[in-house]
Every structure is written in structure tokens, then in C-alpha cells.
Amino acid sequence: MTSILVLNGPNLNLLGVRQPEVYGRTTLSDIESMCQSHAAERGFTVSFFQSNHEGALVDAIHDARNVHDAILLNAGAYTHTSIALHDAIASVELPVCELHLSNIHAREEFRHTSFISKVAVGMICGFGAHGYVLGLDALRRHLGH
Ligand code: CA2
Questions:
Q1: Per-residue confidence (pLDDT) for residue 64, from 0 to 100
Q2: Which end of the chain is less crowded, N or C, counting CB atoms within 10 A of the terminal residue's CB?
Q3: Residues 79-95: pLDDT tens digits?
Q4: What band does 75 get if pLDDT is binned at 50, 70 and 90?
Q5: pTM for the predicted model, two decimal places
Q6: Main-chain dihedrals φ then ψ at residue 7, nearest 5 degrees
Q7: Quick check: 123 and 71 in contact, CB under 8 A?
Q8: Could you give the CA distance from residue 109 to residue 91 in angstroms, rounded to a whole number?
Q9: In 3-state terms, what secondary structure has residue 88?
Q10: How many whole angstroms separate alpha carbon 51 and alpha carbon 134?
């Protein structure tokens, strides 16, 4: 059965809890439930992991090899800074879909650069929490499963 790892980076644990005017009222746990039902209805599995620590995210990418078929990654602010995440993705030989809740290109200049895009198969941004199910479907199609 297809298995997709959904990986979330720094501060995404605060979704729905702080600054709802910026990121909305949907919590990360709501997003996880949404992804779990979406996957169950379509016959694939998702595993969820969130960390505020760059090294823990690198470890999760390494550990995904031989366990998962693809990774859906919202690297949060590490998107714009992390060569370590870029290198981990380049080394793992799994398709990665980059995901952002907000349209990073309509925001501050510093959010326009992504180290993840350079090694991702594609990127979804600007559709809020719905982007997660779009990302899951895009990866499944990419895998041809
Ligand atoms: O739009 C996205 O999904 C981002 O990856 C979110 C990151 C941001 O740094 C990226 O540029 C775009 C920030 C996530 C922070 O989430 C918070 C949620 C609630 C309260 C504070 C931060």
C-alpha cells in the first residue's frame, strides 16, 4: 500500500492556536485528521510528523527511505534557509512535494526563495489547509499508484 510521510516544520504546531488572522483557525491536528480520512477513503496511508528542529526534520527525511514512497513537506521558515534540508532531500531518492499554506510569492521578499523547490518534484502554495490533500493526490499521481 502506498505510504506518504507528511512532514511539518517549525511553528506549524501553533496553527489554529496563535495568530488565526494570518494562518486561519484550522489546527495541525485538524489537518492530520483530514489527510487520514482522505487517505483511508482512497486506500493509501499517511504518517504525520512535526518538529521545530532542523536536525529532527533531516533525520525524518533520512528515515523515510525504504519506509515511505513519498514525502509531502511544509518546511515552514526552513524552506527559505535550509541547505541541510535541501541536501537531505537530494540524498533520499524519494519524491518530495513542497507545500505552503500561504502563497509565499505574494508575501515578503525573503519568502520568495526556496531551497526545497530546487529538489522537489513540485510545489503547492496558497490554498490553505486544502493544499495538503492536493499534495497527497499530486504525489500519488506522480508515483503512478
Ligand atoms: O505558508 C506556509 O505554509 C509557510 O511554510 C508557513 C511558515 C512560513 O515561515 C513560510 O514562509 C510559509 C510559518 C509557519 C508558522 O505558523 C504559525 C502558525 C501560527 C502562529 C504562528 C506561526
A1: 98
A2: N
A3: 999 999 999 999 999 99
A4: very high
A5: 0.97
A6: -115, 130
A7: no
A8: 28
A9: helix
A10: 22
